[in-house]
Structure formats: C-alpha cells, structure tokens
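Thread: iron/sulfur cluster complex, take 2
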Amino acid sequence: MSYRILPEAVVFLNPPYKYIIQRKLRCSPRRCAYVFPPPELLSLASAIANLNDIKLIFIDAIAERLSLKKVVNKLKGYRIRELVFMPGFESFEEDLKTISKIRENLNEDCRIISFGYLPTLYYKDIFQKFPLVNYIIMGEPEATFMELSAAILAGNKDLSHIRGLAINESSGITVSKNRENSIDLDSFPLPDRRLLRNDRYADPFLKKPMTSVVTSRGCPYDCAFCVNFYGRAFRQRSSENVIRELKQIVTDHNIRSIRFMDDNFTVDKDRIIEICKGIIDNKLRLNWTCLSRIDTLDRETLAWMSESGCRAVFLGIESGSQKVLDYYKKGYTVDLIKRQCRLIKESGIDIVSWFIIGAPVETAEDVKLSLKLSLEIDSDFVCINELQLMPTTALFRISRGSFRLSPVEISRLRRKFYLGFYFNPKIIRKTLLRLAKKPEGSVFFIKEFFSAIRAKYIEK
Ligand code: SF4
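Output below.
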C-alpha cells in the first residue's frame, strides 16, 4: 500500500487490554463495569485540536471494548503522523508490546510518542526494549507535546531545543533540558469532547452519560506512599474557567453527570464554593462526584457541594490505625476522620472510602481497625488496595523491605476486609435499599464488588 496518498492523521490511543482498566497517571485499577474518559490523553489531543487542520483520531479501546485487530482496522486508510499513548501502571509492559504490534501495521514514518509517570522514569528502558517508541515526554506533557507536534509537522530534524523530551535516535538517546510545570492552567484549551464516544462512560453514583473534568494539578500534602506526579505546588484553574467548561458540557453534549478527577478537588475552600455557586447560578443541574481529603472539608463547603449536586466523595482514608496513618504521614487522626465523616453524612453526600493494606508496620490487628472504621463512618462503598511501593515516593526510599505482613497475608486480609464490609448486616440493608431505589446503579456496585475482590490493582 502507498501511504503517501492517504489522508494524514494524529492518533491518540488508550490501548486495548485483556481487562477493563482505568489508566491514570499513577495507577491503572481494574474495573468491571465502568470507566471514565482518560483525561490526560484527552488533554493532549485537545492541545493540538485547533493548531492545524490535520485529522485527529481518538480511540479509547478500553471504553469501546476494541481488540488490537479492531484498532489496526480503524487505522487502515490513514497515514499516521504520530501515535500518542500513555501506558498503564500495572499493564505497562503489555501496553508497550501492544503498541509495538500496532506500529508494525503503520506507515514507516509514523512517530510513536509516550508520556506519563512510568515513561518519565524509565525512558531509557523503554527505548532499549521497545525501539519503535521515538519520543517520551517527561513530566507535564501539554506544552512539550504542542512544540513536538508542530516541529514534526514542519519537518524539523533538530528537536533538542524542545524542553522535557527524551529522543530515541539511531545515534543514541538524548534528553533535553527540564521543563517547568505550566503555571496558568486556564491557558490550556478546554477538553474537546467531540473526540470521545461520550455514551461509553459511566460512574456508579451518577446517571449516564457522564464525563470527567480536571480542575487542578498537584497536591500540597505529603503522604509517604503517594506519587504526586505534578508535585506539591497546587495549581488550579479559576472557577470561571471551570464553569465555562461545565456549561459547554451541558450545552454541547447534554451531559449533566461529572466526575472531578483532581487528586484533591477540595484543597481551596473559596474556589470550591465559587464553583458550586456557579453551578447553581447557571442552573446547570449537575450531579457530580469528586476526590477529596478529609481535613479539607467543613460544614459550609459540604452544604454548597450538596446543593450544587455532589452525590459522593471519594476519600483516601487509608487506615483505621493511628500508627499506620502516622507511618504514612497522613497528617490527621482517626478521631478527625470520624468527625468529618459525620459532617459529610449530615450533608447527604455518600462516602466511598479507600483503604490501603500492607504498610511495613501494619499487623492484622491494624487491618481489623480499618474494617471497624469503615463501618463506623458509614461508608457506602469501600475500595481496598494493597500497598505498592512506587519509585519516587518517600515510602519507597524509607522502607527497608521488612514487612510485618507477608504478601499472602495481605491478600487474605484484603479479601476478608471486603467480605467483612459488604456482608455486614447494615451494609446489606443499605445495598438492598439502594437496589430498590436505583437498580441500575446497584448492578454497577455488585459488579464492582466482585471485580474488587478478584483484582489486585491499587486504586490510588
Ligand atoms: S494521597 Fe492524596 S492528599 Fe496525600 S499527597 Fe497524594 S493526592 Fe495529596
């Protein structure tokens, strides 16, 4: 086939995988029933959407349940200028193999571009093991990608001036100067959801269709296990800019269910209240969920959140044992967790609590305390992860490899935790009530529960 005469395209691919997974910057948890739009990949596609009139192809093979063969078929008929992807954490190696197989079916001059947490760390290994990958964007990707894409379009051979880029050439690997994170998040183009099949996404707490929105980057806290890819400097979009995106979502796509994907949506109280007021004043009639940190919430914020449509908050509780919380440097107490959860419940918002099992200092008794706490705070759903020591985290540096619990014990305790929670009479009663009120959402919960007790993937 002569690729020269085919129309040119830039492809953004969330690669196919054997399971339904949600690829995020720092993890790729297994899902059973639902996924959200991949915000990082969409942000990159949107960054160049208006730069030139080249065709953009966005394929979310996970949401669309596409096999490798189907992806290859979709790309037939194009000369691909760039293929951009972010590998998952647990699917890392397999994703790179998948991309290499897809690459074999594309035109010779297609450039493969990767980005994300692991590629930034392991660019050398990737280039050596998967030489078909041409470029890796290090750190925050948008600005680097825009420059790289423009340079490829212009046919520039020398890319060494582009900051934040690792280049794989026959003469060797080169890495350009570091790029600082962007300060002004309002300057990013709004995500272009026309690229997505919006009907393919769901959130168990919200009605379909739904979409994901990111309003900030970075987190000022310092939990010892956390990757915090965008650093401790908290950068946020203005409330006006966020409301502009929400209005566009409602008007252009008729979507009223939103999952805010920020690592910690509620860091800045004033901004959150402004966003809530904006949702109410503009009569957007949204339902939404978000990730939050227990000590960033108070009664006033929760009241605004609830009034503007917040249905559930996802909280990284991590443990019911003060010893383990201190080990993780969470910076709050078990008592505070209890008090704050009471406030959340009083405001009518559901709680999804995340716990981690497997801190080096943790014992089976500590896990019991976590189960007890999850019930005491009236969680509506729990998600229990086994601790993963991620490179670049404080825990990775300090833990000396001596763990009180063995991997087998951790797995067993995790399963026991799930069973102890979901088979508690109070939770069974609540689930049955939910089933009667919202059967669709409950099916999601049940499927997710079985997925959770089967899978080992870390959520945070
Ligand atoms: S775990 Fe949450 S609160 Fe802690 S540093 Fe990471 S994002 Fe911030």
